[in-house]
């Protein structure tokens, strides 16, 4: 009789433990291991679309191809803070979000704007860079596009799946939208006269003018950049709050230190010296 009771008791304890294990197991799946995983891998893997100087672009330094730019410098600071090395995966912008969702990268740093649609599927850091939208044209056309109606019937480029694509669709109703998955292809088309204008954020457009004096200019036409699309943020997998917290701390430090301008300048110098 007594033996039986002990047996029952032990069985009871065993099932409580098993239940606990199951619950713990389930909990673990949804709990946030984002920082620990990066540390365990000893690597922070970021996704970027290196067609976007001065934020991300390829250079050849000492015979070696590498990707650099403002976003890469920011990513390096995050990796340093975590005490891991940085790995860069270069992918076209339209597939960056799915790279994140499919666990191919830990973070996306690619001049990405936090939009309401994207925020449904990934998490974003605080904004780290403020921009507005402008239209890049050939230098000879510098005075040709002064108002939206001047773009009527023109070929206007915007990178596929970007906020610029939306801007052309919504604000330049009479224009013919031309999209490419890579920004640099559109810049070449503009240079060759295949398209008439290219909608970009000012940080990128100004850089084209700066690095190619004599070729490009910023048109006078005013585009509206809503408050919701006027900046860049770092993206992480949905729920990776701990990793986002580390990113936000790095962003805070850059902003408090006032070193953002210097990072951009450093990136531009690298492009002028080693860019192709
Ligand atoms: N800020 C824009 C967006 O989020 C454009 C980003 C394009 N980035 C790039 N690396 N090509 O849609």
Automatic annotation (TrEMBL):
What the entry lists under PROSITE patterns is as follows: PROKAR_LIPOPROTEIN
The stretch of residues making up the signal peptide is: 1-20
| Top-level taxon in the UniProt lineage | Bacteria
Q: Which InterPro entries match?
A: Solute-binding_3/MltF_N
Specify one Pfam family: SBP_bac_3
Ordered alphabetically, the record's keywords are:
Signal
Ranges for domain Solute-binding protein family 3/N-terminal come to 43-267
Query: What is this protein's name?
Result: Glutamate ABC transporter substrate-binding protein
Specify the species.
Ligilactobacillus ruminis
